[in-house]
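## retry 2 of 3
previous attempt timed out at serialization; input unchanged, resubmitting
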Amino acid sequence: MPAGPASLAGLKVWPLAALPPISSIAPAAAPDDYSDLAPFAEAIAAARIVALGEQTHGGREEFQLKLRLLKFLHEKLGFEVLLLESGFYDIARLAERMATGEQLDTMAPGNVFFMYANSAEGREMLRYLDAQQSAGTPLGLAGIDSQHSGALSQSELLPRLRAFLHQRGSVLAEEQAWLDFSTPVQPLLSFQPQIPDPAVQLAFVRQAGALRAELCGQPPANPAKALPAEWWCQVVKSLAAQASSVWSEGLDYQRDNQMGDNAVWLMERMFAGKKAVIWAHTIHVAKGFKRSEAQLQAGEAMHRHWGKAYKVVQFTAAGGNVLDFGRLQPLALPPLPPASLEQGLAALPGGKLLVLPLMQRTVTVPQWSIDYQALPQGQLGRNWDVLFFLDRVHPVTMTR
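## retry succeeded, writing output
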């Protein structure tokens, strides 16, 4: 039985401005009219952190709409920071180089997650950051991913960490202690799924713990200024989380826990008092998902820290194709489940729509997922706060 008006009970539905087809990877010359986003602004009015999810890493219209929301949040609502699903270390180094005049879009290949660095739609986001930097209205930029495999991580992370330890006069930079830590890390940075011998793993865990004890320490006396040791602490914690996730073959999956910890640290220490947009896959930013109490997804970790100040935006569609980022081949969306929320929305006139829950209640109508992984069944009002519906999606275009 098709979804009908009863399926949409308790929802507000607004028309959303049509997205223009991409004719080039340059941003549109005309300024955007954001008047149709007034309900969206109302929905996230009290938020300090707004997470923009994406179901596939490969939907053109998702990226287009996310960029439009990012522009609106930055230019009209005072959001000053973008946290990206990409390596914590790599993005920090790129942000430093951007401040000296280098272009993020040029530096991105091999250093930024490739679906953002190599697709036309992802590059529009990177070029927007470059344009804002040049215009004197920059967005603070940081990566939250604890998984490091970028070229900068591979070539300079370990040497720079050891140099920092030498500068501090730390015994942990001395030969054997350093070898115990660094030897199993390099394959991780090269994204080689090698599982070291138990003795090697134990030595790494011991040295990583010693590094955390030295670098993390007690909260600094001046909470308004993050210290270099704190930043390196997050790098070491990220490497330890990456090791746990890979070496346990996912049984002790700590990637997302640390992603959430990185985001919290960035916003409480590096960007204290500022408002941030997060750009990442929905599975990382949605609230309420966890593998266990010891293995939270990043969105749940962030929600537990920020509460109502953390809002999640989800995107869904009635049909079309996306680019499967694993195979770089078009992937057709499956048919809409009967009586689903998406089927009810598809029956309404007006094309693209903005959907918000009333009174913050959960929408229990079945909602589907076009995710490339087995995304748990999510719900508007519980796992995300705002849902954008698109009638059709198309694959992103890879440009390099």
